[in-house]
Amino acid sequence: MKRNCFKKTNLKRYIALILVFALMFQTDIKYTNANESQETQVHTAYKVRDMYNMAIPIRFDGEDEYLNEKVTETNDITNIELIDNTYNKSEYSVREYYRAVSNQTLNLRTVYLSENDNKFTSIKLAHTRGYYSPKTDENPEGYTTDKEYRRLELLRDWSNKVQEAVDNGAKLKNMAGEEIGFDKLDSDNDGYIDAITVLFTPTDAKYASSWDGGTIPLWAYHTINNRITIKTAKGTLTSNRYNQAPIQNDPVSIYKEAGSDIYFVNNKTLIHEMGHIFGLLDLYTASGKSEPVCFMSAMAKALSPVVQFMTSREREAVGWLDADNITPLQRQVNIHFRRQRIKDRMGRWHIHWNFLIIINYIWSIAMWMIEK
Ligand SMILES: [Zn+2]
Q1: What is the pLDDT of residue 326?
Q2: Which tens digit of pLDDT belongs to each residue from 132-172?
């Protein structure tokens, strides 16, 4: 659904003006810092956290294995290579995004659960895709009112199959085919698997369902699931946070990096859902309509393929920024929002935001810079 994020109100024009000024000053500050001292470049001293995301590609009953199938629009790389480019390899990958947004403190690697030692395989579910989709004339086995029950059934379905696969010796592998120990899945040693991502190919038009304000079984979302336990070198780990997302491998969602042969897919949903793994919430309006708050963060309306940053407040909340990165204002800043009423020629009253707000803002920033 397309929503108009920029209504032409005067207030928004003023905010845009302020942002322009703020950005001009910010560029200036960065320039000064870079020349002034090396002290501002402390970020590399932070400890880098290695974290693994266990990707579980699934396929529905009656569907063929797709991971090793070639995607013609990508110079014939396979689906699993396309997935890996998107998560790990491309400069637009989920990994590079989180490296940047975490201020270089997080090295997030996605690895794949596979039942076969020699090739990558998806986990086959007990039910068909249609079973987890709405009932229509074309899809008679779909759900009608029991949508939430089907969503829980899907959760149970893949959990059972994954547990079965792990108990039967399924392994974690990176794209190079190297085995990764399951113990690596708990980077903070809390006994829980840090991140699970359930991946499936996009739902075709026959099963499509539109957002109706509640969670749809095949929608991309994040929640908690404690149903899986895995014995590892450092004790038994329990599943916890997971998200599920479709792999957007349809031609319109495939991108190619400029100047290289690396193809990847629309990554905004993968990055948004991964944000929930770190405890970040949706930045949606409080009106109950579940609309993202425009483009203010990847946790609002995420962009693709160059996904916008999280806000500084979110990054601070996760622990990716701290007092070393955010210099508090030393001087109390008073910004006065003054309103003026102006009578037009027809005798109607209009309220305008006073230009003083901008002068005040520039003055505050100037004072702050002088003090620095
Ligand atoms: Zn979300």
Answers
A1: 76
A2: 999 999 999 999 988 899 999 999 999 999 999 999 999 99
Q: Are strands 77-78 and 70-71 parallel, antiparallel or unpaired?
A: antiparallel
State mean pLDDT over 234-258: 93
Q: Could you give the angle at the alpha carbon of 317 between the alpha carbons of 315 and 323, nearest 5°?
A: 75
For residues 25 and 235, the model is more confident at 235
For residue 88, how far is its CA from the centre of ligand 1 (angstroms)?
Answer: 21
Q: How far apart are CA 85 and CA 103, in angstroms?
A: 22
Backbone angles phi, psi at 343, to 5 degrees: -95, 130
Read off the amino acid at residue 222: H
Cα(24) to ligand 1 centroid in Å equals 32
Whole-angstrom distance, CA of residue 372 vs CA of residue 369: 5
Q: For the chain, what percentages of helix, strand and coil (3-state, to nearest 5) are there?
A: 30, 20, 45
Take residue 85 and report the two structure tokens written for it. Answer: 């480019």
CA of 269 relative to ligand 1 center, distance in Å: 8
CA 362 to chain centre: 34
Ligand 1 centre to CA of 160 (Å) is: 25
C-alpha to C-alpha distances, 160 to 66, 204, 260, nearest whole angstrom: 21, 25, 40
